[in-house]
Amino acid sequence: MVGSADEVSPVLRVVQWTTGNVGQRSVRAVLANPRLELVGCYAWGPEKVGRDVGELCGLAPIGVVATDDIDALVALRPDCVVYNPKWPDVDHMVRILEAGINITATAGFITGHALGADRARILAACEHGGSSIFGSGMNPGFANLLGLVSAGLCDRIDAIRMLESVDSTGYDSADTERSVGYGRLPTDPELPALIERGTAVFGDAVHLVADALGVELDEVRCETEVAITTADLDLGSWSIEAGRVAGVAASWQGWVGGHRLISCDVRWRKGRTLEPDWRVEHGYIVEVDGMPAVRTRLEVHPPADFVAHSFSDYMVLGMVMTAMPAINAIPSVCAADPGIVTYLDLPLPAPRGWVSR
Question: What is the rounded (10 degree) CA torsion for 299, 318, 89, 188?
């Protein structure tokens, strides 16, 4: 297992990997936490190379300059890389891990099963470097931990379902959204496979929950569904025309003995002109069938002092929720045995350093 992250509490040296929407919140969190020190940053895109990381994240200069020189970042010998690109780059991850540097990731990684054959490369890199990799985020990730905590009330578990159900109109990330089928015609024959590829990391979550339940799955499958918008949608940096996909649902399922035991589901819609008009829960729902039956609902709201000038300003709430599980896990991941580690291998991440002063 792992050593306690609190037996010795040195300041851990961190390299930030990208400064996109999630990465900016990670930078802010690292700078705010006295247990962490930001020593370097990987720049995604030539326009960010050579710029101060603080300025890239809407802050005052901090004296750390972003670079695309991976060898230079490895040479810093950080304890951990906070890995926040839109999609995982296995070559980059392998280089980091082989160098003995741990990773906490929010980019398409929980157990590595979604990477297919590349999962073996990740494991080999961890073994070679004596390093660990942990993936989370809000969902998949923290939402699955919520499911496991809820199931801990039961002495019989017949099924467990975890649902993310939101109107994501304020989430303006065209590349991410198109990768799961938004904007396509509902008759596009490629849609089911596109949604499956774009949500494959939720299959990781099914494997995580099965491991926690102590069962071996017969099959992991994905079922998909779409809805269209009946009016043109302006989403900020891009738009969706009427008659095209503006609602995407995926259900990743773990089956045992002809029975659907685990469901990790998402239901995302944009705007109020959806057909069919899907109901969304505006949060996260866990349902456990068993003895007793348990239903847990997680809602997220802005604080009383939150100032927003448009609906898109609320996007920052989702970025904080995505970044923080990976940030809070850094001390435990740095203390963990080498390999792919999950919530099942680590002590409960302690949210230390965030009490307002």
Answer: 80
Structure tokens at 30: 């690292």
**125 close to 112: Cβ distance less than 8 angstroms:** no
Rg value, the chain, Cα: 20
Please write down the HEC assignment for all residues of 139-186: HHHHHHHHHHHHHCCCCEEEEEEEEEEEECCCCCCHHHHHCCCCCCCC
Give the whole-angstrom CA distance, residue 331 versus residue 352. 11
Q: 């008759």: which residue's tokens?
A: 187
Cα(64)–Cα(62) distance, integer angstroms: 6
Q: Where exactly are the structural domains of the chain?
A: 12-136+329-341, 139-304
Q: Reading across the β-sheet that carries 80-83, which strands appear in turn?
A: 66-67, 36-42, 12-17, 80-83, 102-105, 132-135, 339-341
Spatial CA neighbour of 249 closest among 228, 225, 269, 229: 225
CATH 3.30.420 is held by the domain 139-304: no
Q: What is the pLDDT of residue 352?
A: 87
Beta bridge partners of 160: 262, 288
For residue 122, which of 144, 139, 105 has the smallest C-alpha distance? 105
3-state secondary structure of 12: strand
Tens-place pLDDT, residues 266-313? 999 999 999 999 999 999 999 999 999 999 999 999 999 999 887 778
Q: How confident is the model at residue 170 (pLDDT cuts 50, 70, 90)?
A: confident
Residues 6+ apart with CB under 8 A from 189: none
Domain topology for 12-136+329-341: Rossmann fold (3.40.50)
Same fold, 12-136+329-341 and 139-304: no
Per-residue DSSP letter, 347: P
The whole model's pTM is what?
0.94
- pLDDT value of residue 7: 53
Per the CB < 8 A criterion, the answer to whether 28 and 57 are in contact is yes
Q: Quick: pLDDT tens for 308-355.
A: 887 778 889 999 999 999 999 999 999 999 999 999 999 998 898 898
